[in-house]
Amino acid sequence: MSYEAAAVLDTETHDAINIDRSKGDFTFPERNKFDAGRGLTGKTIDYICDVKNDPQWLRDFRHKALQVFLDKPMPTHWASKDLDNINFDEIRYYLSDGEKPKRSWDDVPDDIKRTFDRLGIPEQERAFLAGVEAQYDSEAAYSNVKEELTKQGVIFVNSTEGLHQHEEIFRPWFGKVIPTADNKFSALNSAVFSGGSFIYIPKGVKLKQPLQAYFRINSENFGQFERTLIIADEGAELMYMEGCTAPKFETATLHSAVVELVALKGAKIQYVTVQNWSSNVYNLVTKRGLAMEDAEVRWIDCNIGSRLTIKYPGVIMKGRRARGEVISIALANTGQHQDTGAKMIHAADETTSNIVSKSISVGRGRATYRGQVHIPKHLKGCKNNTECDALLINSNSRTDTYPAITVKGNRHSTQHEASVSQVSEDMLFYLMQRGLNQGQAMSLAVNGFINDLVREFPMEYSVELKRLIDLEMEGSVG
Amino acid sequence: MITTAPHTSATFPAWFTDRQQAAWTRYLATPTPKRGDETWRFSNIKQLDFAGFSRNASTDPATDLVARSSGLEAPAAKFVFINDTLAHAESRLPAAAICLPLAEALVSHSALVEAHFMRQETRLGSAKYAALHEASLTNGMFIHIPDHVEIPGTIEVHHWLTGANTVIFPHTLVVTGTAAKVRVVDIFRSADQVQPGLAIAVNDLSAGPGSKLDYVAIQAFNEVTRVIQINETAAARDAATTGFILNTGAAWARNESLSRLEGAGSRSDMLAVSIPARAQEYDQRTFQHHVSPGAFSDLLYKNSLYDHSNTIFSGLIFVDEEAHHTDAYQTCRNLLMSDTCEANSMPGLEINADQVKCSHGSTSSQISEEEIFYLRARGIDPVAARQLIARGFSVEVVSRLGDDALEALVIRFIDNKFANIATGGA
Model ipTM? Predict the structure, then answer.
């Protein structure tokens, strides 16, 4: 695909996208031609800083992070060797809106178009999801929501705006939950991040509606190196939803996001992710939440797309009675490796954590659960429960489980359980006897397997998720 | 530690000399494990500094240690080694069975030993030390039970470590033919409680088709000794193997146990009881490798942790692509008996086949107040109640050995350990 393709849409694209402009008062964003080129050096960092008009402290921060990134080895001694196939010199680390790869509706693969139809994705969102250069401004479409939020004192902006306009809130927590040197990819993100959200919920504000990145869809929110920081002040509650069930058609092959959550005393944060990148994408994400006294952080994570996903959402329970939870669904089809899991660091008395992970391996897909639970000395009354179940659909599917549990002292309890199974012949026979074909029976069984987790997702997501799983399961049996 | 190539006895066959030299080269070429190696995660790498240890011919009067080598009442055969030197041998085995010190078997049954001697690659982290063992060993046991021969009772082997800063390389190689049956117990002890020692032990178990092979290792060295123990078990079609490890001694013990289910319908039971106290550290790594379809493996490791002790359990069930209809289970249970102990568990699964039933579970917990209350309600004081529960926790694993005399022997060592813990294990 050519990056120089005409900015003007051809008629077919127009027809395909078919946006009724009168409805939402859409405007096209202005095009800035900024491109940091391929490869990553100190110059790339300076370029990004200049373009984004970063303050000096951030420039220093980025340069330091670059050094950490270059110094750290690839984690291939435990992670997939597939990581060695990433060519860091080929990657573009920063492209402003104007230079984003453009493509016409024709370039969008048929299977993705078909999926849009099957999932019932709103027309307006299809083009965006397909990456077709016809972004629209969602300000108008969601203006009611925005107004409501502002009234309550909620800050919901992109990360660049956050650090420029709300530095006094942003800076104290930025990079604190996930330090630059946490791992090679968090260092990479710290060096070149752009996009992502900054959210601040004031004391005691409980949001009734989930926040979605959609609300500011024309900003650089689905970037390659997005950086999200969410702070829930004392007693605040919110649910944030990231991604979407539709496959996101992408040509950029490396995505490395960092997401930091801070739940102050008594706050609650739920972070819902549905990841469905196209199957050429390396998705290497670091996500961690900090839960203070009586606070709760929940990660609800669903991974369906990408070539290789490495993601272990974590919670550091720093205050008494803090609670952490990770609910994870992974579906690995042929050519995919979903290496997901959870990290629970207990750092105060009476903290509790719960991990429920379910994975499905289809075709030659490989699903991996990797977890860490850490309960240090001198704490008391900490509890962890871990359950991971894996379902294998075909004879060459693969699943792995690698938990690591450290318990010091005797006033705690942890339990870990994992099982691997296939859909039982009896179940399939029973369903087929009632007139379902083998594929339908299998879909039903798989949906049953993850049903209790799917219910944790907001309504519209869980409906789409079920359809999506049906779609993924198609042709996998019989 | 040992910096010069060990000298292979001139009486040994040429193939063995070659193997020892090759192993020495491999030992030198293999890097020392370092922090960050996945097979040494959570491990205390400092324990691998073996400076100052050397081989040492027995210095204590042998008769004393032979007299102290009490085990089963009537073993089928009994051997005593002191610093790898044979000090006592008695056997009531049928003539067809070969049960010889390795040094003797190397001469009299060279081809048979060569066919089975250290055939597997060590893959759980201690390849360097397996190479050192192979290069350095001077003796051990070679047990070969021919087709359709069943050995009643148990073959008992004692390994004594004596003299300060002494290293020993105990080796046990057990091979069973078709439908043969044998049970072997290795007992590892120090001559006294104060002299630091080092044992790098290997046991190789090869179970022929339809045979039954049970192996028990009782590790009761003194608490200034360090141990690396590497087990390799291979089970052919319809064979059943049991491997049991009891850890009560040593300052630091590393156990690596690998079971390969090579034949359809084979079975492997991997069992361990560890009771660390004071500052003892036990580091256990296991691997259940399902090569053939329709095999069964079941692992149960139980740790009771006292004082400042530390355990690591890292297990992996690995199911090959063709190994359909596999049944594999792995359970690690940690009973936390103090505020300051530390238990690490890494139960893992890698499944490449379909139609498998696999599960693993790992728990860490203390004795619940309800259990104590229940026993108190029946007139048992809290200390005795805790002792009873802790003992019962370990005994559950021992009872899977299925031989009363051997179970009694293992429990004797367990009770000795409890007696040696403040408050009697409560």
Answer: 0.77
